[in-house]
Fold this protein.
Amino acid sequence: MKLRSYSNHSNYRKKGNRLNRLTLVVVFVIIGVFLFIYYLNEQLMPTYLDYAEIQTAKIASSVVSKAIDSRTSSVMDVNDILVEVSPGNHADLKVNTETINRVRTETVNQVKLYLEQAEQGELSHLPNLDNVEYDYNKINEGNGVVFYMPLSQAANIPLIGNLGPKIPIRFHVIGNVHSEVTSSIKEYGINSAYMSVGIHIEVKVQIIVPFASKTTTVTQDIPVAMGLVRGDVPSVYSKGGEEVPSIQVPITPKK
């Protein structure tokens, strides 16, 4: 009886040892898998964020473009927004700031409205992009624009196409829409210039992916007015230099 009891005790101990070893193996495997996933995620995180930034810029730029297209104002002739500083002196001109500021305010308000509506679930403002799948339920909750990107696309693995898990991306506008008036003048012919006046729009958005976030700025330039500004033709024309004679242009005296 004692021999049998010792034998049973030995079997139990062997089974316990095997169970302990199996438990340790399972624990080590789980830890190894977790560490591998963590390492892989850390290595691919910059790629995730870069891809998310590109797609976010496309979506936000499209929303801004739709807002601009919906404005009541269109591109004007630059001569319509120029006023004479001195009455009767067409050579001394300045931009009508009242007109420009009106268009600027109208544009900024429209952009803000469209971005807010897109974040609150106005799906007509969102573009249809390849490899972008919107989460309409979360968008309707008003927590920003949420979409998914395939892991294969983010990691640039074309062999598996759109297979694999999809990574959720959320972005929302932070701060106000910043704008400033821009202008450029290029010489054109004799005493003429091609002038363009526009509005530079900057929208700051926060991009959120699992375990990381990034802030980026989406920019867009909007033309307001452009055209050729013609000055008075000078009565004397010269290319410069002592050996080049000047040309006197006959002017008919005003009656």
